[in-house]
Write the structure tokens for this entry.
Amino acid sequence: MNPALVLATARRILTQLRHDHRTVAMLLLVPSLLMVLLRFVFNNELLFSHIAPALLGVFPFLIMFLITSITTLRERTTGTLERLMTLPIGRLDLLFGYALAFGLIAVAQVAIATGISLAWLGLDINGSIWTLLLIAVLDALLGMALGLFVSAFARTEFQAVQFMPVFVLPQILLCGLFMPRGQMGWLLNWLSNVMPLSYAVEALTRVTTSSTVDATLLRNLLIVACCALAALVLGAATLRRRTP
């Protein structure tokens, strides 16, 4: 992997996004708008503080999955990816360039949503704000990495969206957001244990209820980070020049 090529790819993606105002607005503002909507739906600060930290990870995870999978597929179908791969650039250079570009956007996305939730919506946490931000950013990066991975298997943008019920919705349903994982049946509990979003939500919950950074929290962070890295490597292995 060549760092210069990674940076060049990231710069190209960010330059393209700068001219796509609607996509930038969706990436940066939609998670915050959803948090505002959630706050007024509950109309209760205690209840909001109980569920909002997990959603600070879920919303960016979902949005980054959609945007990255569609963006990568569009580059393939328009021939941009094919032209790039005729140059002396490796697959990992391309994928990590995408990851760097969307990772920077994920940091801004999560920072805005977290700042609004803490300053305006009354979110109360016991742990470190920086730890909360780190976990939420890892969630967004995980969604981005999975989006890059599944884009290799889609031929149209509609097919890319169809992967969401397969890769995203089961994780949201089984991550412990709606029902404690320990109260699920053995099969659902096993499925939950192999899904990375479960560990992200558990980490966010621990940060809001305790100020201690323990071994369980570090394990959860490591699992989420490793899953995101594995998705990027698999995405590089399955990357094709163009969609047949």
In short: The first helix runs from residue 3 to 18. The chain has twelve helices and no strands.
